[in-house]
Amino acid sequence: EVWTMMNSKYSEFLPSVQSREDLVAEVEGLSMDIDLLRAAIENEVQQDLNVAFTEFTELKQQLERDSVVLSVLKKLQEFDAALKEFSTALLEERYMPAAQRLEKARSSLRNVESHGGFELKIPKALRKELTVQEQNMIYQLGKEWQKLIVWKLPPSKGSSSLEAVVLSELHLHTVPPQREDAAAPPVAAVLQALALLGELHYKLKDFGQLLMEYILKPLISYPSLEPVTEEQPDVFILRFRSQELALDEFSPMKVFDKIKLIFEVLHKYLLNVPLEEPGRGRKDGRVTLAELLGELIWEELSNCLIHSCLVHSVPSSSSQLEQYKEVIESTKEFEKALKEMQFLKQDKTALLQYACNVNFHFANRKCLDLIKAARKLMTSEIHNTVKITPDSSTALPELPDPGSGDHPKTHGSSSLLDNETMNLGSESSLSQSTLSLPTCRISSSVQQLVELAYTTMEEAKTSTKFCCLQLCNCVRDIFHVFCEVVPKYHRENLQKLPQLAAIHYNNCMYIAHHLLTLGHQFRCLTTALLSDCGGTFVDAVPDFKKLGMECFLAQMRVQKRGVLDRLWSARNFSSMDDDENYRAANKSIKQVLHQLKGLGTVWQDVLPVHMYCKAMGTLLNTALAEIVTRITALEDISAEGADRLYSLCKIMVDEGPQVFTPLLEEDQNKKYQEEVPVYVQKWMTFRELMIILRANLQEIVDRWADGKGPLAEQFSAAEVKSLIRALFQNTERRAAALARIK
User: Fold this and answer.
1) Three-class SS of residue 355?
2) Among 11, 429, 463, 594, which residue's Cβ finds the most Cβ atoms within 10 Å?
3) What is the pLDDT of residues 298-355, one digit of tens each?
């Protein structure tokens, strides 16, 4: 059974094994076929494919080259056709088609030149031909432009004088022809052709320069110039005539009307031409000739109108500001008219901005005029003087009542300072002359300068806030300029001429005197404005006092050196018993007195009395102190020498007081001559020296009085002993006297 089972299983397995062996053999056969086929493909088909691909690539490159050549040939054909059409149109004076054909030819040539890889000589030749034809057309269009716009200028071209401008004419042959058979090309065609060729900008630029130089600027600069227009059948003529004009007839309104007339006729006969201008920001790419011209000349024209017209119309006083509204309205209408003619863009408002900013320009002009006027006063002659007294009236505005806050009216002549002085506190505790300026002489120019400051402050009260601030600052600037200009401009005279130094001192004190109360007098101005413009001007008072004092002290130093130089020739007052020495000393004394008398004369009625006496006293004191020092330093004085020294000192004592002549009236000067000891510190010392020169030993000892007498008040013990040793011989009496001096 087992064997039977095995046989049955074997008989069933054997066919499947056989079939599988057959399949293996078949697969092996197929594998060999595949290997043979692969070998055939690799050896034969691949080579054929490579050859085919190479041929395809070559054919493709050839096709591309042929396509480029075909494209170039087409563009060359288009270029040739465009040039032929251009030549025909140009001969027929059809400038627009000619310009378009020329542009087409340029585009075709540009396309040909854009293809790389070709070394063609043809594009270079074509470019040269295109340039020649373009220049030919530009030349013809230039001739047409010259026919359209004809300038007849004066022989002296470049001259902008009134006589030359009157001879200038502008002829526009742009009037539409009345005959249908007119052969002239349309204006628009010529202008459009110029625009397409890029030449219109240069033509308009030249036209704009001539328009500015011979028409617009002369109309602005010469108010007497009037434009005259004339229209004939085939031409429009613009010329000028000059007429008599009163000085007050010049106004921006009339200038605007003339300029507007010029643009109206230009707009009618030339500028109202729409042109194709792609890329200029317009949706349709169209722009008028007026717009192009406006872009070229408006900036120069507006600057000329501002600096040669509007600037002269700026009011010079606050009362004229209200009338300036007419100028603003006229400027607005002028800009509106130019915008309607498309000459001016909507966002351009330079003229109107300038006109509307009148307060700023008014303040600047006012301040400039004030500074100029002030500088003129500062550089005028100092020696032209006026007399100032405590009760003198000055043409200044009246003070407001204390605490009123109202704006006071201006009066022609009122004593501003006196009224204010009386209001500065309790009338029972202040006299009328408490803050009064003493009698003296000041420069008339300085008086006018102070009046100018008051008038400006008065005007500031009724001005706008900005103008008020500017005017207040200007007043401060005026006084600041005074401190800078006057000492430098008049330096030489102030150093050499003592009278001018005294007047300058008075001028500075006069200005400082008014600056003390200037801000207080105009307290009606707001606190904010006063603080912005420097408050009450009191801060400038020390500067002016210092300025005047420094100048006068410098002159005093010069005079002191003069006194000392003259006394130097006195040979130290030694050996006065020698006639020559005595004559030298006597001469020096008289020279000093002559110098002081001369000063007393030039300062007379100029300096305030107290300042006069103080200055003369200082100089006389310098002389006396120098004489005392020289004499007390002598080691030996003979009896004759002492007498001569006494006589010299007596000259100083007798004639010294006579230099005190502060007033013109001689009888009134005696009072000040008697008060010499008050102003001359060494006066009593000098008198004591004279007594010593004539006294004996006992008298000297008595006047010393153990250090309590009048001699002790003026001299030290050492000085008295030195004088005794010089005057007296060495004896027991002298020794006893010297012992008493201690």
Assistant:
1) helix
2) 463
3) 888 888 888 888 777 776 666 666 667 777 888 888 888 888 888 888 776 767 676 6
